[in-house]
Amino acid sequence: MQKFADEALIEVSSGKGGNGCVAFRREKYVPKGGPSGGDGGKGGNVIFAIRRNLRTLAHLRYQHSFQAENGHDGEGRERNGRDGKDVVVPLPPGSLLKDPETNEVIQDFGINDEGNFVFLKGGNGGWGNVHFKSSVNQAPRKALPGKPGIFRRLKVELQIMADIGLVGFPNAGKSSLLDKYTNARPKIAPYPFTTKIPNLGVLTFGAGKWASGKNTEDSRDIIIADIPGLIEGASRGAGLGHRFLKHISRTAALIFIIDLSESNYLEAFDILQQELNNFSSELSAKKRLLCGSKCDLEGTGEALKKLTAKYPSEKVLGISVFSGLGLPELAAEISVLVNYTGDTR
Length: 345
Hints:
Layout: E1 7-13, E2 46-50, E3 65-67, E4 87-91, E5 95-98, E6 105-108, E7 116-120, E8 151-158, E9 164-168, H1 174-181, E10 199-206, E11 209-210, E12 219-226, E13 253-259, H2 265-279, H3 281-284, E14 287-293, H4 300-310, E15 316-318, H5 327-337
Parallel strand pairs: 1-3, 2-4, 9-12, 9-13, 13-14, 14-15
Antiparallel strand pairs: 1-8, 2-7, 5-6, 5-8, 10-11, 10-12
């Protein structure tokens, strides 16, 4: 079982503030000392921290509740209580915090989010009786309790961060392309629905090279996402790919992989585009490129010509992962789609 999780329900609580203290000085030769009760410590905060080494929400399967420490009570001799420790919840980039009842987005940790986000602040500590001394009340027996913490239930969703999303029917060749271009090693087999979870790979483009594995001064890493194959009706829940469509919502562009050896290759793009539009009009409006795959097979050359003729307004390329045909040209087009020119000025 592959440990991929893109949704989780969690409970978070900030810490309660410590109580103020009622105390009086009791020292030799000072029979009637004044108030000396210290303040309570502040409760701990609930903090969400982006960790770029995380790729899924699998860690939230094993811990659903996060409780910050309560502040400590004040003590005599005007000693304030210690502040409660914060609780830190690590999340991968691209995570969303939502209200589980209304599905309203509370916080979106997009690609530029760094550092820590204080979601819930801990309660303030209560005052000790030293604060209530006055000219008419030299021995106050009053202290304040700490303020309570805050409890929230949250839905956490993950939308993986990628520059390019690969879209296509099952067994169209998306995983093979990802394997060829990047160091990702998705499962590849000659039957549908081999990919059951999204896969990410990094295409290093620059200095006239792709997949060189080296970061030269004028190179750039382009992240490619391969989601499980779509079938007709995916936007209504059919097949495996529907629940992963959200993972290509943040991509700069999409590449439609169309298997030219299949009988329905001329209808494939229309069906895929309709499924994306049914799921989200923003997805279907993204920059895109049509890529006819398996061009090493007999008859696919003519099929590529027909596909290009049917969509004169679309950019159409033919590739073969097996022979390497068209792969450098596709890599160059990918760099254009993500607005990368190799110019480092």
